[in-house]
Amino acid sequence: MKIIALIVSGGEGKRFDKNLPKQFFRINSKSILEQCVKKFVDCSLFYKIVVVCNREFIKESKKTLQEYKLNFVKGGKSRQESVYNGLKSIIKLMRY
Fold this sequence. Notes:
This protein has 96 residues and is an alpha/beta fold. It is 36% helix and 21% strand. The chain has helices at residues 32-43, 58-64, 79-94, and strands spanning 4-9, 26-27, 30-31, 48-53, 71-74. The protein starts with a strand and ends with a helix.
């Protein structure tokens, strides 16, 4: 069985009150996004990992996570739309 993880990291961080969304905030020299993805990678349960990113920060997300082999998807205007985009991507991955 092939299991695909979906990590939704498409927020803008408006309530976080920083220049970057909270997923890029560093704790112990690693961003929250890196720490989250590393847990999924280290688990070795997943065939693929899809990360849904804010359209404005997709380059930053790819740069932050460049050491991992991931699939990136642009997020939508709402969390619901971002999850939908991620699920559509997973359906395409499952066909291969």
